Protein backbone atom coordinates (compact mmCIF):
# COMPACT_ATOMS: atom_id res chain seq x y z
CA UNK A 1 0.00 0.00 0.00
CA UNK A 2 1.29 3.42 -0.87
CA UNK A 3 1.33 6.03 1.86
CA UNK A 4 -0.58 9.20 0.97
CA UNK A 5 0.34 12.34 2.85
CA UNK A 6 -0.86 15.94 2.72
CA UNK A 7 1.43 18.55 1.27
CA UNK A 8 3.23 20.55 3.95
CA UNK A 9 6.85 21.72 3.89
CA UNK A 10 9.24 18.76 4.05
CA UNK A 11 10.48 19.33 7.61
CA UNK A 12 7.14 20.47 9.00
CA UNK A 13 5.94 18.74 12.15
CA UNK A 14 2.59 18.27 10.39
CA UNK A 15 4.33 16.35 7.61
CA UNK A 16 6.06 14.10 10.13
CA UNK A 17 2.80 13.54 12.03
CA UNK A 18 0.90 12.72 8.81
CA UNK A 19 3.64 10.34 7.68
CA UNK A 20 3.60 8.60 11.07
CA UNK A 21 -0.20 8.22 11.08
CA UNK A 22 -0.20 6.91 7.50
CA UNK A 23 2.54 4.35 8.22
CA UNK A 24 0.76 3.08 11.33
CA UNK A 25 -2.56 2.83 9.45
CA UNK A 26 -0.71 0.88 6.75
CA UNK A 27 0.80 -1.37 9.43
CA UNK A 28 -2.67 -2.00 10.89
CA UNK A 29 -4.02 -2.94 7.45
CA UNK A 30 -1.13 -5.29 6.66
CA UNK A 31 -0.99 -7.00 10.06
CA UNK A 32 -4.11 -9.15 9.94
CA UNK A 33 -3.08 -11.46 12.79
CA UNK A 34 -1.25 -9.37 15.41
CA UNK A 35 -0.64 -12.39 17.66
CA UNK A 36 1.93 -13.64 15.12
CA UNK A 37 4.09 -10.74 16.24
CA UNK A 38 4.45 -12.09 19.78
CA UNK A 39 8.00 -13.20 20.64
CA UNK A 40 9.33 -11.93 17.30
CA UNK A 41 12.13 -9.38 17.67
CA UNK A 42 13.09 -6.41 15.52
CA UNK A 43 16.57 -6.59 14.09
CA UNK A 44 18.91 -3.68 14.75
CA UNK A 45 20.62 -2.56 11.51
CA UNK A 46 20.73 -6.06 10.07
CA UNK A 47 21.86 -7.72 13.30
CA UNK A 48 19.90 -9.36 16.10
CA UNK A 49 17.77 -7.24 18.41
CA UNK A 50 19.01 -6.13 21.79
CA UNK A 51 18.37 -8.60 24.61
CA UNK A 52 16.02 -6.24 26.45
CA UNK A 53 14.11 -5.09 23.36
CA UNK A 54 10.35 -5.57 23.22
CA UNK A 55 8.74 -7.99 20.83
CA UNK A 56 6.96 -6.84 17.66
CA UNK A 57 3.54 -7.19 19.27
CA UNK A 58 4.54 -4.68 21.96
CA UNK A 59 5.73 -2.27 19.26
CA UNK A 60 2.52 -2.85 17.30
CA UNK A 61 0.26 -1.96 20.24
CA UNK A 62 2.43 0.99 21.31
CA UNK A 63 2.52 2.45 17.79
CA UNK A 64 -1.28 2.15 17.51
CA UNK A 65 -1.82 3.86 20.87
CA UNK A 66 0.50 6.73 19.96
CA UNK A 67 -1.27 7.14 16.61
CA UNK A 68 -4.55 7.62 18.46
CA UNK A 69 -2.96 10.48 20.44
CA UNK A 70 -1.43 12.00 17.30
CA UNK A 71 -4.71 11.79 15.37
CA UNK A 72 -7.20 12.65 18.12
CA UNK A 73 -5.23 14.63 20.69
CA UNK A 74 -4.30 13.80 24.24
CA UNK A 75 -6.75 12.32 26.71
CA UNK A 76 -7.84 14.60 29.52
CA UNK A 77 -5.73 14.05 32.62
CA UNK A 78 -8.47 12.15 34.49
CA UNK A 79 -9.03 9.72 31.61
CA UNK A 80 -5.30 9.20 31.21
CA UNK A 81 -4.92 8.36 34.91
CA UNK A 82 -7.84 5.92 34.71
CA UNK A 83 -6.32 4.24 31.67
CA UNK A 84 -2.81 3.82 33.06
CA UNK A 85 -2.18 1.45 35.95
CA UNK A 86 -1.88 3.26 39.28
CA UNK A 87 1.81 2.44 39.75
CA UNK A 88 2.73 3.59 36.26
CA UNK A 89 0.67 6.75 36.64
CA UNK A 90 2.47 7.63 39.86
CA UNK A 91 5.86 7.09 38.22
CA UNK A 92 4.80 9.21 35.25
CA UNK A 93 3.48 11.97 37.51
CA UNK A 94 6.68 11.97 39.58
CA UNK A 95 8.78 12.08 36.41
CA UNK A 96 6.61 14.89 35.03
CA UNK A 97 6.91 16.86 38.26
CA UNK A 98 10.70 16.51 38.25
CA UNK A 99 10.89 17.45 34.57
CA UNK A 100 8.69 20.48 35.23
CA UNK A 101 10.95 21.63 38.07
CA UNK A 102 13.99 21.35 35.82
CA UNK A 103 12.13 23.14 33.03
CA UNK A 104 11.08 25.91 35.43
CA UNK A 105 14.67 26.37 36.56
CA UNK A 106 15.85 26.43 32.96
CA UNK A 107 13.16 28.91 31.95
CA UNK A 108 14.08 31.32 34.69
CA UNK A 109 17.80 30.92 34.07
CA UNK A 110 19.49 29.72 30.94
CA UNK A 111 16.80 28.88 28.39
CA UNK A 112 14.12 31.23 27.13
CA UNK A 113 10.74 30.08 25.88
CA UNK A 114 11.88 30.10 22.26
CA UNK A 115 14.87 27.87 23.03
CA UNK A 116 12.66 25.47 25.01
CA UNK A 117 10.19 25.35 22.13
CA UNK A 118 12.91 24.50 19.62
CA UNK A 119 14.32 21.82 21.92
CA UNK A 120 10.95 20.11 22.37
CA UNK A 121 9.95 20.63 18.74
CA UNK A 122 13.12 19.00 17.42
CA UNK A 123 12.81 16.18 19.95
CA UNK A 124 9.21 15.50 18.90
CA UNK A 125 10.27 15.56 15.25
CA UNK A 126 13.04 13.00 15.90
CA UNK A 127 10.78 10.75 17.99
CA UNK A 128 8.01 10.70 15.40
CA UNK A 129 10.51 9.98 12.63
CA UNK A 130 11.96 7.11 14.69
CA UNK A 131 8.48 5.70 15.43
CA UNK A 132 7.58 5.94 11.73
CA UNK A 133 10.64 3.82 10.93
CA UNK A 134 9.59 1.29 13.60
CA UNK A 135 6.09 1.05 12.06
CA UNK A 136 7.71 0.34 8.69
CA UNK A 137 9.93 -2.33 10.29
CA UNK A 138 6.98 -4.04 12.01
CA UNK A 139 5.09 -4.08 8.70
CA UNK A 140 8.09 -5.43 6.78
CA UNK A 141 8.83 -8.10 9.40
CA UNK A 142 5.19 -9.24 9.44
CA UNK A 143 5.20 -9.49 5.66
CA UNK A 144 8.39 -11.60 5.82
CA UNK A 145 6.86 -13.86 8.47
CA UNK A 146 3.69 -14.42 6.43
CA UNK A 147 5.39 -14.68 3.02
CA UNK A 148 3.93 -11.42 1.73
CA UNK A 149 7.28 -9.83 0.86
CA UNK A 150 6.89 -7.55 -2.12
Describe this entry's structure for a reader:
The chain is mainly α and 150 residues long. It has helices at residues 13-30, 56-72, 77-83, 86-108, 113-146. Helix 1 runs parallel beside helix 5. 15% of the residues are buried. The mean pLDDT is 78.
Number of strands: 0
User: Could you give the order of the helices and strands?
Assistant: HHHHH
Proportion in helices: 55-70%
Distance between the termini: 10 Å
**Helix-and-strand structural type:** mainly alpha
Radius of gyration: 18 Å
Overall shape: it is globular
Beta-sheet strand percentage?
Answer: under 5%
> What is the makeup of the main sheet?
none
Low-confidence stretches: none
* Average pLDDT over all residues: 78
Number of helices: 5
List strands and helices in order, with pairings.
Blueprint: H1 13-30, H2 56-72, H3 77-83, H4 86-108, H5 113-146
Helix pairs in contact: 1-2, 1-5, 2-5
Could you write a compact summary of the structure shown?
The chain is mostly helical.
Give structural attributes.
globular, 150 residues, single chain, mainly alpha
